[in-house]
Specification:
The chain is mainly α. Helix content is 75%, strand content 0%. The longest helix has 16 residues.
């Protein structure tokens, strides 16, 4: 997986979160920010990792996102590893 593919997955993950009020609330609570602050955070490169970490915190979040994005759930973890520079397994 390339960094661009990983960022695309993170972007799709953020769009998925944005479409669910419950997930938006949880993301805002975790970020400690409001909507305006979250928009500012979204412009930073590390935001992609934050989004993927948020999704990966709960199995059901990953499964729901993967199903909506029509990707294997393992690709979310792989994207996180690629963007974070860590070992995916």
């Amino acid at each position: 997986m390339t960094r661009n593919e990983a960022r695309d997955i993170a972007d799709a993950g953020f769009a998925h979160i944005a479409g669910d009020a419950e997930l938006v609330g949880a993301l805002l609570a975790q970020s400690g920010s409001d909507v305006t602050g979250l928009r500012a955070m979204a412009a930073r490169p590390e935001f992609s990792v934050f989004v993927l970490d948020f999704l990966l915190e709960h199995d059901q979040r990953v499964l729901d996102f993967a199903q909506a994005a029509q990707i294997a759930p393992q690709r979310v973890q792989l994207a996180r590893a690629v963007l974070g520079g860590g070992d995916p397994w």
